[in-house]
Amino acid sequence: MYKIIDARFLAENVKLFEIEAPKIAKKRKAGQFVIIRIDEHGERIPLTIANSDPEKGTITIIVQSVGKTTTKLNSLEKRESILDVVGPLGTPSHIEKVGTTVSIGGGVGTAIAFPTAAEMKRQGNYVITINGARTKDLVILEDEMKALSDESYVTTDDGSYGFHGFVTQKLQELIDEGKKLDLVLAIGPIPMMRAVAEVTRPHGIKTIVSLNPVMVDGTGMCGGCRVVVDGKSQFACVDGPEFDAHLVDFKNLMNRNKMYAKQEHDALENYNHECRLDKKIEALSE
Amino acid sequence: MQQLTAKERMKIPRNPMVEQDPNRRNKNFEEVNQGYTAQMAQEEAMRCLACPKPSCVEGCPVHIQIKDFIMQIAEGDFLGAVHTIKQDNALPAICGRVCPQEEQCEQVCVVGKRGEPVAIGNLERFVADYEREMNKVEIPKTAPLNGKKVAIAGSGPAGLSCAKDLAGMGYDVTVFEALHQLGGVLVYGIPEFRLPKSIVAKEIDGLKQMGVKFVTDTIIGRISTIDELMEEEGYDSVFLGVGAGLPWFLGLPGENLIGVYSANDFLTRVNLMKAYKFPSEDTPVLEVKGKNVAVFGGGNTAMDSVRTALRLGAKNAYIIYRRSEVEMPARIEEVKHAKEEGVQFLLLTNPIKFNGDEEDWLHSVTLQKMELGEPDDSGRRRPIPVEGSEYDLDIDISIIAIGNGSNPLISQTTPDLETSKRGTIVVNEETMETSKKGVFAGGDIVTGGATVILAMGAGRKAAEAMHKYMSTKA
After folding, report:
1. Strand partners, A3
2. What are the pLDDT digits (tens) for A22-65?
3. Statement to judge: residues B413 and B445 lie in one domain
4. How far apart (Å, rounded) are the C-alpha atoms in residues A226 and A234?
5. Residue A216 is nearest to which of B222, B258, B265, comparing CB atoms?
6. For residue B245, which residues of chain A lie inside 8 Å, CB to CB?
7. Per-residue confidence (pLDDT) for residue B435, from 0 to 100
8. What value of ipTM does the predicted structure carry?
């Protein structure tokens, strides 16, 4: 059992958890992930480690409710527990001093962009961050990103806060201004990562994306997380999760991520229905 | 014991295993084989000729005293029989179910030269089940703790048998498992209908009572490197029984379409994660009911996958294998069971590509007929494509069961551990010692995909060598 030390919403449906996992906290490097299973009946899902505190023995994950498991996870509170937390998994980000780097986080992807951006700064890079969200209320980690960046931008699709537009438009602006960008790291929804890859491709700017496909064990055993990179199958859990964005087959990745869409939809419906029933029963018994 | 002549013994027919009816069992996950009754076991034991130099013992990878335990069964001493087995085999209830006896002990059985061999596997299973069901399992005596600590990576058959022997010798043994459940391939790979998980759990309980500690959710190589285990965490020796665990694919076009699974992915979802109970269990598997399922491969894992698909309601369940039935590596019993249950075998047939729709959903597989040529390196006749024999078969789900490569997690983080070109860990075959001092390895991570009994034998061999190593170490 892994105890939840802190749990709080950062935005609607986006929750931060600080979990007691001393060994993982000590070992974890930027770019790595854990697999969690909430309870006896739970599925195993991969979540990138957003931060860790080796002294306190905790790791931080940031979760957006999408399906049943993430919705159920986000209903957990401080002092409750998660049955299984395994990690650190995946190959750590390869971070060195390259010059100017741009870390782009889209939505909850910002949680994953954050630790690598911090590491880039530690290595002495000039760090630009672009923190994108659909609307103002969904912007997360704004202060944290700002604190570590040499330049930081917030973009919103609806213009309710910061730059009005997509992260790719901001990135394009930076390129057009003639800034020499040495490395771009983009993490967010697959369409966003694909769009970023297309912005940087004509300029030959090295671009890395962190992928989060469906997986079971996270150790290379199931092969469910394979992605096509440069025409070859790679396992995101052991070969990744970070890959060269210009070589990833995003169409296949996007389709594969919809593999269980029907089951996920049904499971979530069921779960929400049960929750509503539970509430009704509670109301009746009061 | 009744005195029968050899001739009389040879006349007794082999007692067939009691099995669930094929048309019932292909719809449930309960065990197919129901086991012998005590009477059947004793009758079967009467068939043994008690050869002065029993070849069956030589045929067994761990040299169980087969003649002795069969004599005990014939005399009705079932507990004595299981104790005899346990001198050499830590997991008889498991091996009695999954060992390929027809290639080992039963293949060389003298009775089998003029008819069917003594059903050694069925007898092994019977006494192990008898002991467990009668609640007569004795926890082996352990030597007093000797103050030395051993770490074992992997709770599959190699790790469990190594742990058992070392705990018996007085070592403080901790087994680390990457998954949330103990048992390795015995629980994620081999399905319930062939090996009930409760049997594996019982064996593990026994080890716990011997003092073995188990830690799940722990990936050696990541959370602790081998150096850290030995230098910082105080382990005197380490055994690596982490299994193969990196599925091979065919390298064909369309292999990443939705609906193409590795056998590990499919079986883990259904066995370990109980996806057949979705949505009361959270892990999904693609809808199999009413679908056409093709499994590629001819080994036990292929049979497990295709029979699992049948149980999930597949309309057509195919084994597609590029050689003929005689070259199939699966146990004869598994092939027989699969056929009885309605699996269709497309032999001498090889896939060329997987075809899907716009959204990457698999809808068919292009196949090609093969014929057998000269024997290849494996001694089996090489399959050669028949030109112009290509055709498409409508398939919704494909499961690739052609074996596993070596998991890189430990070798990546242990640079001084010698590995082969295939990624397997190189060991001294006598002692199972690796190139790294104090570190031993066995099972599929050394041999590549093999059997439970070989992994178990390797675990025991390593335990003995580790004992020697730790006893002589200052």
Report:
1. A81
2. 999 999 998 899 999 999 999 999 999 999 999 999 999 999 99
3. yes
4. 5
5. B265
6. 219-221
7. 94
8. 0.91
